[in-house]
């Protein structure tokens, strides 16, 4: 049987989906790509990694984008009785694909490939038009959260540093790497710890999502299983730490997967039932670990079981400074003595006064910035305060902190007579705050827009060193 393959990497164009201007279409240099790269190449946005440009390109993620490829009739010759498939190797993420105006695929997972037979829609004697519309993942994600109110969604951003060893850990917040990466690890003898693509969150378990997870896992297990460098699959990155942080339900003695689905941490079903079952079915020779870190129901910081993520470098005990002597000398510091003869040396250093100019009679110390604010178009976007560190050594008790809170419609004004580190307002169900989690310095006022939720619970706040009983205030919004 004859088989031919053609890569559709060039000839694409794209535009904002709701822009009906015929001149809105812009060229795409090559695929794979993504919309920020294509907009930058066409000089429609500034480089997001330069200056404050990241702020000016936020709108891109809130729009839908349409990509189009025109294929002239001779581009792919299809003899009679030939089957024609289109293969998509990862559409990111909510994508609708049409061929000649007919919808052929809806995809909601970029970690799987899709093969679609197009015999019924393919024009063998005229032009074919392939179009892909990518919905805003940001907006679709918000809709999903609203649709599944039964689930507590948590998502955390983390940064992880690793000591250089002959191991590559591909964490769950990344991607399933290309085969070229796996080939290189096979050749160089680098062991691969591969996380499934779950990280720093509490994932839902509604039926359509579980089906997508199973398809994603099977496809990648089949692709990875021929590479001897892949030695461990882990269910997630730090999701069990999310469970601990937010006190989600986890009973180690409960071994019934069906009951896990009804808990506030239903993702346990994914990591301790679904994924290990799929690993056993697709690649039983590889090790499976429910999470990174994970200790068989023990706390994720327990160093006696499982693995741990060592964050103590930043947040744990402060070890002694290395120059402070704590041991015994094992040899003399002076091995021998040198006796100088009279007039046998020359003075090369002599105490003297050094004249230093004080321009404009300024002899004060150099200024030291304690607090800085950054505004963008008149709006406060960031602040930084130079606090003495580490914070755990600061005595912040009995500071007699006074807070003044004024209400004006849906606005709260917060001020302090003394510096405050880590001021946080409690967010109740349905409440929306324009700002939260910040430092305060004397003379500064922080204006916060607040939308109350369905409850009328008092507004509570705390800060580093605050008394056990935090202050409360009942807003009338």
From TrEMBL:
Protein known as: beta-mannosidase
Gene Ontology MF, one: beta-mannosidase activity
Leader sequence residues: none
Catalytic activity, as annotated: Hydrolysis of terminal, non-reducing beta-D-mannose residues in beta-D-mannosides
Catalytic EC class: hydrolase
Domain Beta-mannosidase Ig-fold intervals: 408-455
Keywords: Glycoprotein, Glycosidase, Hydrolase
One Pfam family per UniProt: Ig_mannosidase
């Amino acid at each position: 049987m004859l088989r031919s393959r053609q890569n559709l990497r060039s000839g694409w164009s794209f535009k904002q989906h709701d822009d009906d201007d015929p001149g809105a279409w812009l060229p795409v240099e090559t695929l794979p790509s993504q919309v920020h790269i294509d907009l930058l190449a066409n000089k429609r946005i500034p480089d997001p990694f330069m200056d404050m440009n990241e702020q000016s390109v936020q709108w891109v993620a809130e729009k839908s984008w349409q990509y189009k490829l025109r294929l002239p009739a001779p581009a792919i010759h299809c003899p009679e009785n030939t089957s024609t498939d289109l293969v998509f190797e990862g559409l990111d993420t909510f994508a609708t694909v049409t061929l000649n105006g007919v919808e052929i695929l809806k995809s909601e997972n970029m970690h799987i490939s899709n093969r679609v037979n197009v015999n019924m829609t393919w024009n063998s004697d005229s032009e074919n038009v392939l179009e892909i519309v990518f919905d805003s993942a940001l907006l679709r994600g918000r809709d999903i959260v609203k649709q599944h109110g039964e689930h507590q969604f948590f998502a955390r951003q983390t940064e992880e540093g690793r000591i250089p060893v002959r191991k590559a850990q591909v964490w769950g917040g990344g991607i399933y790497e290309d085969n070229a990466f796996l080939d290189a690890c096979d050749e160089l003898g680098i062991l691969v710890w591969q996380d499934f693509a779950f990280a720093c969150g509490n994932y839902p378990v509604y039926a359509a999502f579980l089906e997508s997870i199973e398809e994603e896992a099977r496809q990648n297990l089949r692709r990875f299983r021929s590479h001897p460098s892949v030695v461990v699959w882990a269910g997630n990155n730090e999701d069990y730490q999310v469970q601990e942080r937010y006190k989600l339900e986890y009973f180690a003695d409960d071994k019934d997967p069906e009951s896990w689905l009804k808990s506030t941490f239903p993702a346990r079903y994914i990591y301790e039932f679904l994924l290990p079952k799929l690993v056993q079915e697709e690649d039983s020779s590889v090790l499976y670990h429910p999470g990174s870190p994970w200790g068989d129901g023990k706390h994720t910081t327990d160093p006696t079981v499982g693995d741990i993520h060592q964050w103590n470098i930043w947040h744990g005990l402060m070890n002694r400074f290395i120059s402070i002597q704590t041991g015994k000398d094992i040899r003399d510091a002076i091995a021998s003595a040198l006796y100088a003869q009279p007039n046998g040396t020359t003075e090369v250093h002599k105490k003297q006064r050094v004249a230093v100019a004080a321009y404009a009679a300024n002899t004060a110390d150099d200024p030291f910035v304690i607090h800085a604010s950054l505004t963008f178009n008149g709006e406060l976007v960031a602040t930084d305060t130079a606090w003495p560190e580490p914070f755990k050594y600061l005595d912040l008790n009995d500071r007699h902190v006074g807070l003044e809170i004024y209400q004006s419609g849906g606005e709260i004004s917060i001020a302090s007579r003394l510096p405050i580190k880590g001021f946080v307002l409690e967010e109740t169900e349905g409440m929306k705050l324009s700002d939260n989690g910040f430092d305060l310095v004397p003379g500064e006022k922080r204006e916060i827009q607040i939308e109350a939720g369905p409850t009328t619970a008092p507004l509570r706040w705390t800060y580093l060193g605050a008394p056990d009983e935090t202050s409360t205030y009942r807003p009338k919004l």
